[in-house]
Amino acid sequence: MKILLTGANGYIGMRLLPQLLALDHEVICAVRDKNRLSIDDWTKSQVQVIELDFLSEFSPDILPKDIDIAYYLIHSMSSSTSDFDEKEAQSALTFNQYMVGTNVKQVIYLSGIVNEEKLSKHLSSRKNVEDILYRGHFNLTVLRAGIIVGSGSSSFEIIRDLCEKLPFMITPKWVLTKTQPIAIRDVIRFLTGVIGNKKTYNDSFDIGGPDVFTYKEMLHQYAKSRGFKNWIVTVPIMTPKLSSYWLYFVTSTSYKLAINLVDSMKMEVIAKDQRLQDILGIKTHSYKEAIAMAFKKIEQNLVISSWKDSMVSGRFQKNLEKYIQVPKYGILKDEQKRKVTDVEAVLDNIWKIGGENGWYYGNWLWKIRGFLDKLNGGVGLRRGRTHPDKIFPGDALDFWRVLLADKEAKRLLLFAEMKLPGEAWLEFKIDENDILHQTATFRPRGLKGRLYWYSIIPFHYFIFGGMIRNITKT
After folding, report:
1. Same structural domain, 67 and 109
2. Tens digit of pLDDT per residue, the chain (474 long)?
3. Among the three residues 266, 300, 334, which one is the final residue of a domain in this structure?
4. Total structural domains in the chain?
5. In the chain, what are the helix, strand and coil shares in percent, each to the nearest 5?
6. CA-based max dimension of the chain
7. Do 79 and 256 contact (CB within 8 A), yes or no?
8. What is the value of pTM for the model shown?
9. Residue 117 to residues 134, 143, 173, 322, Cα–Cα distance (Å)
10. 34 and 89 both lie in a single domain
11. Which end of the chain is more exposed for a tag (fewer CB within 10 A), N or C?
12. Strand pairing of 26-31 and 48-51?
């Protein structure tokens, strides 16, 4: 079948894509920016990539007519604390317009479980998108899930951060809310299992794992599965705003995502039935099994996707190309050069920069800078990196965003997503004479920007000099 995969570079889309290819489907990936579709060259050769922004004005004839199935995996919860629901509604309306010009028979939408009449803004928005999609000229299958547990998922990474960093927690009362987690592997099985299944047409199904826990119990179960204990004290005085700040500072989540998550965590999300499990004959994994599977992927360096690589985890919304041309005028820069004796080994070092591997020199200074950025409302260093030795354009790399990663051209270009009085680039390039050029470029914003740059020149002298020396050691 010919399948349209919207949100192909999102957390779910990246997990779903290889499964669709393994089932011999022809896949069209619809993305806002094709430069940040983080897939390898073999996978790119197997798919068709179309740039399409459902928040932009409708443009006819972009999509092929002979689409059989379409996945609607577009969410905007992380992009805003105020108008994300309006964006999600607009995206769904535009999607319906595009589907009119195709032969699509079924649209599959991943939504959230709806248990209460008074919903959080997040869950209310998901339900509204369902209603809009039901008005489309196609058969709709809606899968409603709660907490998704898998390597790289926002929910799993938040739980992981909380438990690994805080053996003793003072928590708000929403940790007593009940939820039904589901393994990402099971979500993908459901998403592929409903393809072309007429029993699932024009219906909404709850999907969940076999366990129902409070968030507090989930934290305890995580600690137990990892072989340690944690202590949790619940207090009624922590407001939603304080709770959001608590999540933001302790975990790697963005503040926008934190405030929307806290709003939703006050609502119970429990599957009402198991109709779809019965229709497809799927037995779901327990929460304990989901954690074990997630860590197996992490330990084997096989994490396919992470929410941290989403553009909304930083300053970008779209259009990486806007920043690929490093400015030459009105800038300040630090340039280091060093002869390379083993080009391949040095490129490997460059491609491993950041994350747990660090920045090759003065890591404690990088950590301080990340902490200060976090205090100032920035992303800090907690995003790390998804892969230990692979980099794709659009990936998050601590408080940088990868603009270009081309091993053949021997060039890596990063753009700073930290809070700065200006814009900053960090570039590594090995020229035809085997000389590594390491260049930090800063375009200041007014006097404040220039004062910032000159105030940190002494640190640059040590950090950038030490970094290039250690990168070129082979």
Report:
1. yes
2. 999 999 888 889 888 999 999 999 999 999 887 776 777 777 778 899 998 888 888 888 889 999 999 999 987 644 444 566 788 889 999 999 999 989 999 999 999 888 766 666 667 788 889 999 999 999 999 999 988 998 877 788 788 878 887 888 888 787 888 999 999 999 999 999 999 999 999 999 999 999 999 989 999 999 998 888 889 888 877 666 676 666 766 666 666 666 666 666 667 889 988 999 999 999 999 999 999 988 887 665 555 555 444 544 445 544 556 677 888 878 899 999 999 999 999 999 999 999 888 999 988 888 888 888 877 777 777 677 878 888 888 888 888 888 888 899 999 999 998 888 888 999 999 999 999 999 999 989 888 988 989 898 888 888 999 999 999 987
3. 300
4. 2
5. 40, 20, 40
6. 67
7. yes
8. 0.73
9. 20, 19, 21, 44
10. yes
11. C
12. parallel
- Is there a single domain that holds both residue 387 and residue 277? no
Q: Which two tokens stand for residue 380?
A: 């800090």
Lateral strand order in the sheet of 69-72: 48-51, 26-31, 2-6, 69-72, 106-112, 139-145, 203-207
Residues 147 and 296 placed together within one structural domain of the fold: yes
Tokens representing 82 are: 């105020």
Residue finishing a domain among 270, 300, 330: 300
Same domain for 173 and 27: yes
The answer on 293 and 347 residing in a single domain is no
The pair of structure tokens assigned to 301 is: 């360096």
Q: Which two tokens stand for residue 433?
A: 């004479």
Place of tokens 């040590």: 462
Shortest CA distance to 184 belongs to which of 88, 270, 303, 79? 303
Q: How far apart are CA 205 and CA 455, in angstroms?
A: 57
Q: Which two tokens stand for residue 26?
A: 């022809």
**What does the alpha-carbon distance between residue 23 and residue 204 come to, in Å, rounded to a whole number?**
24
Count Cβ atoms below 10 Å from residue 33 Cβ, excluding itself: 19
- Do 288 and 326 belong together in one domain? no
- At residue 56, the 3 state secondary structure works out as coil
CATH number for the domain spanning 215: value is: 3.40.50.720
Residues 42 and 171 in one domain: yes
The 10 Å Cβ neighbour count of residue 448 is 12
Domain with 442, as residue range(s), is 316-472
